[in-house]
Amino acid sequence: MSIQTIKWVNGRVRIIDQTKLPNEFKYIHCRNVETLWEAIKRLRVRGAPALGVAAAFGVVLGLKKFNSSDKTKFLKELRRLCDYIGSSRPTAVNLFNALNQLKEIVSANKQKSVTQLKALIQKEALAIYELDRRVCRQMGDYGTALIKPKSNVMTVCNAGALATVDYGTALGVMYSAKKKGKQFQVYVCETRPLLQGARLTAWELLRAKIPTTLICDNMAATLMKQGKVDAVFTGADRIAANGDTANKIGTYNLAVLAKHHRVPFYIVAPLSTFDPKTATGKQIPIEQRHPSEVRGFGPVRTSPSAVNVYNPAFDVTDNRLITAIVTEAGIIRPPFGKKIKRIFVNSE
Ligand code: MRU
């Protein structure tokens, strides 16, 4: 049975509450944009591509309440909603790309009535949803060749069905490889502090009957030294024009280790995760999260409540540590800057 992370159902946004997994599988039906904002902030829905879809659906939800036919007021409300949704989480660029896409569709159709614009926005949001389903499968097909038969691969955080509409980016490659009959096993880093690897990725991979071994984040180096890792696959939250890639905190550690141990390090991400206007990783905004996530482990406090905490949710992996980036436009290899530029110039 497939995992439907986010879906527009009868005028509401239905999401799986990922904070409850793996102990409980529960849907939440967001009726208004405020509930959806809270769900994004608290990581009930998470993962860059899923956040793009959530943002677009959030605008549709917010506009349902707008009952005037005054175009100026409508445009003001659209801007307000986009700013509000944009204030939820800063790093995953898919969220901002989706909001910009909706604003652009309105700019290109200014002569239309408010009712028509609302319908156009809803259509575009559903197109963003459908596109994610399609591109994840395309990336899966391209990336399969990178998984060698009988190999051991490693991943961090969750770049699976739960981070997208229903298939995944890095895990999508694994699902496609399995469909093609490849045998491999996956080492999953647990991903402190919020344990997306342990809670979500391990759950997804076991459902898909892919051999999975969970490790603590600090075990990755030893496994690589022992020759137990043939490739690392991760997703991305934002890829700068030069290929520098922001992803879950701990990704950079793996990339450095992979380089040292001559293990290929692959990023799998759709073009909606690229931010060609941001030159390098240095300019990518990194979300800082609440200290309580580090002071404790789940609901249990494991450190003095007064201790200082540093809790960046993402890190940036330098382009020179990345072997290749798998996208729906194919596999990009260094030099990334030139190739990324070519893709975005051609798609304009
Ligand atoms: O904080 P999260 O769980 O939203 O972070 C998501 C990630 O960083 C994932 O690793 C992922 O690669 C991006 S989504 C495919």
Characterize the structure shown.
The chain is an alpha/beta fold and 348 residues long. It has helices at 33-41, 48-64, 71-86, 93-107, 114-143, 170-179, 196-207, 220-225, 251-260, 292-295, 336-346; strands at 6-9, 12-16, 27-30, 151-155, 184-189, 212-215, 231-234, 238-240, 245-248, 265-268, 274-275, 296-297, 300-301, 314-317, 324-327, 330-332. The chain has 2 domains: 6-137, Four Helix Bundle (Hemerythrin (Met), subunit A) (Up-down Bundle); 141-347, Translation initiation factor eif-2b, domain 2 (Rossmann fold), CATH 3.40.50. Strands 6-5-4-7-10-15-16 form a 7-stranded mixed beta sheet, sandwiched between helices. Strands 11-8-9-14 form a 4-stranded mixed beta sheet, sandwiched between helices. A 3-stranded antiparallel beta sheet has the order 1-2-3. Strand 8 and strand 9 (245-248) form a beta hairpin. The longest helix has 30 residues, at 114-143. 45% of the residues are buried. The model has no long low-confidence stretch (mean pLDDT 97). The protein binds 5-S-methyl-1-O-phosphono-5-thio-D-ribulose. The site of 5-S-methyl-1-O-phosphono-5-thio-D-ribulose has 18 residues, from helix 2 and strand 9.
How helix-rich are the residues, as a percent range? 40-55%
Bound molecules: 5-S-methyl-1-O-phosphono-5-thio-D-ribulose
Say how many strands there are. 16
CATH topology of the largest domain: Rossmann fold
Order of helices and strands: EEEHHHHHEHEHEHEEEHEEHEEEEEH
Outline the low-pLDDT stretches. Answer: none
Question: What is the approximate shape?
Answer: globular
Using the 3D structure, state the CATH architecture of the largest domain: 3-Layer(aba) Sandwich
Structural class: alpha/beta
| CATH uppermost class of the largest domain | Alpha Beta
Beta-strand content estimate: 15-25%
Given the structure, what is the number of helices? 11
CATH H-level superfamily of the largest domain: Translation initiation factor eif-2b, domain 2
Spatial order of the strands forming the largest sheet: 6-5-4-7-10-15-16
N-end to C-end Cα span: 37 Å
Which sheet architecture does the biggest sheet show? 7 strands, mixed
Mean pLDDT: 97
Instruction: Using the CA coordinates, give the radius of gyration.
Output: 20 Å
Query: Could you say how many structural domains there are in total?
Result: 2
